[in-house]
UniProtKB/TrEMBL annotation:
<dbReference type="Pfam" id="PF00072">
    <property type="entry name" value="Response_reg"/>
</dbReference>
<feature type="domain" description="Response regulatory">
    <location>
        <begin position="4"/>
        <end position="118"/>
    </location>
</feature>
<keyword id="KW-0678">Repressor</keyword>
<keyword id="KW-0547">Nucleotide-binding</keyword>
<comment type="function">
    <text>Member of the two-component regulatory system NtrB/NtrC, which controls expression of the nitrogen-regulated (ntr) genes in response to nitrogen limitation. Phosphorylated NtrC binds directly to DNA and stimulates the formation of open promoter-sigma54-RNA polymerase complexes.</text>
</comment>
<dbReference type="InterPro" id="IPR002197">
    <property type="entry name" value="HTH_Fis"/>
</dbReference>
<dbReference type="InterPro" id="IPR027417">
    <property type="entry name" value="P-loop_NTPase"/>
</dbReference>
<dbReference type="GO" id="GO:0006355">
    <property type="term" value="P:regulation of DNA-templated transcription"/>
</dbReference>
<dbReference type="InterPro" id="IPR002078">
    <property type="entry name" value="Sigma_54_int"/>
</dbReference>
<dbReference type="InterPro" id="IPR001789">
    <property type="entry name" value="Sig_transdc_resp-reg_receiver"/>
</dbReference>
<keyword id="KW-0067">ATP-binding</keyword>
<dbReference type="GO" id="GO:0000160">
    <property type="term" value="P:phosphorelay signal transduction system"/>
</dbReference>
<keyword id="KW-0597">Phosphoprotein</keyword>
<dbReference type="Pfam" id="PF25601">
    <property type="entry name" value="AAA_lid_14"/>
</dbReference>
<dbReference type="Pfam" id="PF02954">
    <property type="entry name" value="HTH_8"/>
</dbReference>
<dbReference type="InterPro" id="IPR025944">
    <property type="entry name" value="Sigma_54_int_dom_CS"/>
</dbReference>
<dbReference type="InterPro" id="IPR058031">
    <property type="entry name" value="AAA_lid_NorR"/>
</dbReference>
Length: 458
């Protein structure tokens, strides 16, 4: 690499690492912890590339981008930020940053991007576009994540915001599909126009489609869970899309199911599939981005505090359990759980026992659909679920206390089923299990098992 790089970050370690790496690569480096100093260097004509943090002691790096573009047209800026949210990626795109990387960043990856930026600068191929951000104030979307899957999603969202293409948003229930659609609208050029979410019922009747178009005007129209629409409703959408007015609205759709598979099975119209699938955004399930769970939990704690529910924090053991849980309801379930914990916690610090109580006896690992079989041994089934539990943590180990946690998960259903089989008779249940009756009572209490006397079915 060849050129002068201006580095602005309030973290001394990051400044040192970047200075050493860029110097070894052949660059000259000026590093500072001050945004004011960075802007002075830019105005003096120094630098062929800027690498800047967002939150600085004396300002915001993103807000400085339009000024940099005015002062030095063609000067590329790489934004690095610990604010791992969709808003940061979108703001960086709106402000015409050359690139954006979340912290912690991969140094070799950053060096490659810096080399490309310097090469483009040298060839004078970087054409700046000054964009004054008019994003909605007070936006508080739970679209937080530092994992590669979420960062890739954020980048794609930022690229398609103003593209004249329909958008298909796929993901399980509770992953945030509707939030992605709203973010695309709120940060796009259509932000001042209507945002309309359509259900199948909105398309009924002779004037259903025309009424929808009258409501949305040139804004954004979202078909919610379009995979659930019947064939007649799908046909209405096709005819509506073929006769869109001018200006046409932005078309988006959400779905929990694989529309391609539905189409091949003859349950989704091919013509509608290709009309809706201009760009596909896949929103990962929470179990596929375990590292983001603590970030989201802290985000929801902050939101609850702003809503006046009180200030809370998780103990290390409590957060370990939150991180290890499978969250079949995804982000929506996590938010509801955190808000409930904020209300019910007895102290400022949320304990592991309080998390266990709220989660109840739900399994910590979501079962694999269609796996196993009637002939599968119990040990094989347990091993399969345990292996999945370890896999959910990627290359990291699960939180400490695994032995007791797994035993508790196995004990609860065993005792519940045994109680049911003995009609709720604890003496018979203890005998069946081969344990002391007092031991059984203690386990029922510790595991919070609800006991009702049942009549045994013969």
């Amino acid at each position: 690499m060849d050129g002068t790089v201006l580095v602005a970050d309030d973290d001394r370690t990051i400044r040192t690492v970047l200075t050493q790496a860029l110097t070894r690569a052949g660059c000259k480096v000026h590093a500072t912890a001050s945004l004011m100093t960075l802007m002075r260097w830019v105005e003096e004509g120094k630098g062929d590339l800027v690498i800047s943090d967002v939150v600085m002691p004396d300002g915001n790096g993103l807000e400085a981008l339009p000024r940099i573009a005015r002062e030095r047209p063609g000067l590329p800026v790489i934004v690095i930020s610990a604010q791992n949210t969709i808003m940061t990626a979108i703001q960086a795109a709106e402000a015409d940053a050359y690139d954006y990387l979340p912290k912690p960043f991969d140094l070799p990856d950053l060096m490659k991007r810096a080399a490309r930026a310097l090469e483009l600068k040298r060839r004078a191929q970087v054409v700046p576009k000054v964009v004054e951000s008019t994003r909605p104030e007070g936006t508080d979307l739970p679209l937080v994540g530092r994992t590669a899957a979420m960062q890739a999603l954020y980048r794609l969202v930022a690229r398609v915001m103003n593209a004249d293409l329909p958008v298909m948003i796929m993901g399980e229930s509770g992953t945030g599909k509707s939030l992605i659609a709203k973010a695309i609208h709120d940060f796009s050029d259509r932000r001042t126009l209507p945002f309309v979410v359509a259900q199948a019922a909105d398309l009924l009747g002779a004037d259903g489609p025309s009424s929808l178009l009258a409501r949305v005007k040139g804004g954004s129209l979202v078909f919610d869970e379009v995979g659930d629409y019947d064939d007649e409703t799908q046909g209405r959408i096709v005819r509506m899309l073929d006769a869109l007015p001018d200006p046409a609205p932005r078309i988006m759709a959400t779905t929990q199911v694989d529309l391609g598979a539905l189409m091949e099975a003859g349950r989704f119209r091919q013509d509608l599939y290709y009309r809706l699938g201009g760009v596909t955004l896949a929103v990962p399930a929470l179990r596929e981005r375990v590292e983001d769970i603590p970030l989201l939990a802290e985000h929801f704690l902050g939101r609850a505090e702003r809503d006046g529910l009180g200030m809370r924090r998780f103990s290390a053991e409590a957060m370990g359990l939150v991180r290890a849980y499978a969250w079949p309801g995804n982000v929506r379930q996590l938010e509801n759980t955190v808000r409930r914990l904020v209300v019910t916690a007895s102290e400022e610090e949320i304990t592991r026992a309080e998390v266990e109580f709220v989660l109840g006896n739900q399994p910590a690992v979501e079962p694999l659909r269609g796996a196993g079989g009637e002939g599968e041994k119990l040990s094989a089934s347990i091993a399969r679920h345990l292996r999945r539990y370890f896999d959910l943590h990627g290359g990291n180990l699960p939180p400490p206390g695994l032995y007791d946690r797994i035993l508790a998960e196995m004990e609860a259903p065993l005792i519940e089923i045994a109680l049911d089989a003995t009609g709720g008779n604890q003496a018979k249940c203890a005998d069946l299990l081969g344990i002391n009756r007092n031991t059984l009572r203690k386990k029922i209490t510790d595991l919070d098992i609800q006991v009702t006397r049942r009549r045994k079915l013969m």
